[in-house]
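Materials and Methods. Structural model of Complex 1 LYR protein domain-containing protein. The 85-residue sequence of Complex 1 LYR protein domain-containing protein from Coprinellus micaceus was retrieved and submitted for structure prediction as follows.
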Amino acid sequence: MQHTVSRKAGQLTLKHFILKQEVLDFYKSTIRASRAITDPVTRGETVAWIRSEIERNRHISDPGIIEDRLKVCRRELRTTLPNLR
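The predicted structure was written out as tokens:
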């Protein structure tokens, strides 16, 4: 079941732009935090997994759902990458 909100092309709210920046900041911080993983294969798999999760949820446009998914991702990754801020 997809959780999307229909909207006309190009009509993004300020909330959408803020959330987009939050997701990008989260992605950057996870990449930086993954540097603590010493095994290059494991690090590569972790980075690929993070990217695939972001890509998998790219279609979501409902701000509430985006916020919820971001919270879940942060919580999950804090167990994997303890130095994630």
